[in-house]
Amino acid sequence: MFNSWRRKAKHLPPGPPGLPFLGNLLQIPSTKQYVTFQNLGNIYGDITTIRMLGSNFIILNSRKAIFDLFDSRSPIYSDRPRVIMSSDLIGWDGSVILANNTPHFRNCRKLMRKGLGPSAAQSFVPFLNRQSSLYLRDLLNRPEAFPDVFKRNAAAISMKVAYGYDGITEDEDMYQLSHEANRYFEETAVVGVWLVDILPILRYVPQWFPLASFQRYAARAKPVVLECINKPFEETKRHMQAQGHLDMENCIKYSSVGISLGQLDTTTASLSWFFMAMALHPEVQAKAQAEIDKVIGNERLPRVEDKESLPYVSAIMQEVFRWQPPVKMVVHSASKDDEYQGYFIPAKTPLIGNIWRVAILHDENVYHDADKFIPERFMEEGAPDCLTDVFGFGRRICPGMLIAQPHMFVSIAVTLATINITKAHDAQGNVIEPKVEDTPGVVSFPVPFKASLQPRSKAALDLIQRSVEHSKTLPERLDVFSLDA
Questions:
Q1: Closest to 115 in 3D by CA, of 135, 99, 96
Q2: How far apart are CA 333 and CA 352, in angstroms?
Q3: Per 3-state DSSP, what percentage of the chain is helix, strand, and coil (rounded to 5)?
Q4: Which of 376, 408, 440, 469 gets the most CB atoms within 10 Å of its CB?
């Protein structure tokens, strides 16, 4: 009893006053929570507490607070808050991204570090280069559907890396299954959106109950999620004629599905923001194209290996991630009681890192004109590298970042080398202005917009066609690397 009293007597970080029982529930909007959290930080400081239905959430609005807790104290702050809707009700209970810092999580992360680490990532480079020409071919064949082209290209790469599977872009059933399962994850993994996550007892409410629409949603989603987790794994296992220990099989299964789905929407979102940026800033596009023409010429496409030789193109990639990070908030949880800057942080408290505040940094002291798209800030202006913020922190840093970054770079580079991206026009010839506005959810997409895509020249079109034909002669197998490296 004394320990319980002492815990309550300690001070949580400050926050806005709320209503009885509801707390701050009515003050937090269903979209753009990161803006509200930044505004609360401006009032109450970089560490802010909000309360909803008896539960505390701590918001971290500064790079220092996020790194101090998520990175420097990662043994304590590597758990995840329990997300009943996503993990228990629709089938993502073994997901690595939702797992606490348990032996299952550590074993999966160890496996993923080996499979996605430096030697593995280097072995994937020829495949990424090969895939880039096929991506351009699909982009020219379906320019109006560029987000779907991004997603199918990401699926081809992630399924190849995760399962060694070829043909995802032709296997419509598998592609749609992955797409739908990923959508269910993104709609249910946002902390605090589903009432059942705040009041877990609601999980026992039957489907027929008038307020149980979440149960009916879960009944639709769970078979899709389980099929997406099991089907590609069982197919791969059957082809390999392999048997293994059940715990290791589960680790491989959930690590593989994490790799295959983790890249789908994040890459699609980032490339979509890149297309919008180029349509809005033709001067940036022209400057990057001039750099590519000078360094690479028009006899071949840019490659992953050209990154250091194309600093302005690299700066564009960084600015895309800074301007509109694909994930604007990350959520960790404390595994035990802790204190920070004189404030008490109880065990199992969710902590929300406001990446939008940290990576985009509306703090003008770090990135001036932070709302504007200015790649030059990463070159002559010497702005700090933002990639360490975008891909997570501590033990929960994105294990696929060594593949995601070269994939993003080569996609941007080959697009700039061969295609002009401009604003679209309607049937009357009026310019359609893209809206710089994002969608709700775990991954931040731009609201749907139109853009006009045209080959830069006849030579660029010929280059794409030659590159596609050449790619067909290259081996589809990934280079061999050692898991012991």
A1: 96
A2: 9
A3: 55, 10, 35
A4: 408
Q: Where are the domains of the chain?
A: 2-471
281, containing H or E segment: none
Token pair for 401: 């970042």
Quick check: 9 pLDDT over 60?
no
Q: Flag whether 398 is marked binding.
A: yes
Mean pLDDT of the chain: 88
Task: Give CA–CA dist 325/266, Å, rounded.
Answer: 9
What is the C-alpha to C-alpha distance for residues 48 and 40, in angstroms, rounded to an integer?
7
Task: Name the band, by pLDDT with cuts 50, 70 and 90, for residue 388.
Answer: confident
Q: Which CATH superfamily is domain 2-471 in?
A: Cytochrome P450 (1.10.630.10)
| Tokens read off for 66 | 């996020």
Q: Could you report the per-residue pLDDT of 130-151, keeping only the tens digit for each?
A: 999 999 999 999 999 999 999 9
What residue type is 383 in one-letter code?
A
Of 300, 296, 312, residue with least CA distance to 380: 312
How confident is the model at residue 376, as a pLDDT?
A: 95
Q: Name residues whose C-beta falls within 8 Å of residue 60's C-beta, 6 or more positions apart in sequence.
A: 46, 47, 66, 69, 70, 351, 352, 353, 354
* Digit-coded pLDDT (tens) for 63-114: 899 999 999 999 999 999 989 999 999 999 888 888 898 888 888 888 888 8
> Are 154 and 264 a contacting pair, CB within 8 Å?
yes
* 269 vs 355: which has the higher pLDDT: 269
The whole-angstrom distance between residue 50's C-alpha and the CA centroid of its chain comes to 25
Q: Answer yes or no: are the C-beta atoms of 264 and 169 closer than 8 Å.
A: no
